[in-house]
Design brief:
Helices cover 5% and strands 33% of the residues. The protein contains 1 helix and 6 strands, in the order βββαβββ.
Length: 88
């Protein structure tokens, strides 16, 4: 799965594979990249990662020792239902 996305300045970026990492400086373009059934994996310089939807970057998690450096699109996993109330 691949394709071409266009940034806010009209510059084209070819994506050959959804597993390709993209520099975090291009995060503003995630709106054009978003596809149903996919989310973005963001990875920091220490190798830690998180999943995020499109939109502005939120503050980094408290346990991250380095800032975000790249992201890629990954298939969204199945969603679970709400946690049941304890029995007893």
């Amino acid at each position: 799965m691949g394709g071409t996305i266009y940034g806010p300045r009209g510059d084209a970026m070819k994506i050959n594979n959804m597993d390709e990492w993209i520099a975090i400086e291009r995060w503003a373009e995630c709106q054009q990249m978003a596809r149903p059934g996919f989310v973005f994996e963001i990875r920091n310089g220490a190798g830690q990662s998180l999943l995020a939807g499109r939109g502005p970057l939120l503050s980094q998690p408290f346990d991250w020792s380095a800032g975000p450096v790249r992201f890629r699109m990954v298939r969204e996993g199945p969603r679970s239902g709400p946690i049941s109330a304890p029995r007893g």
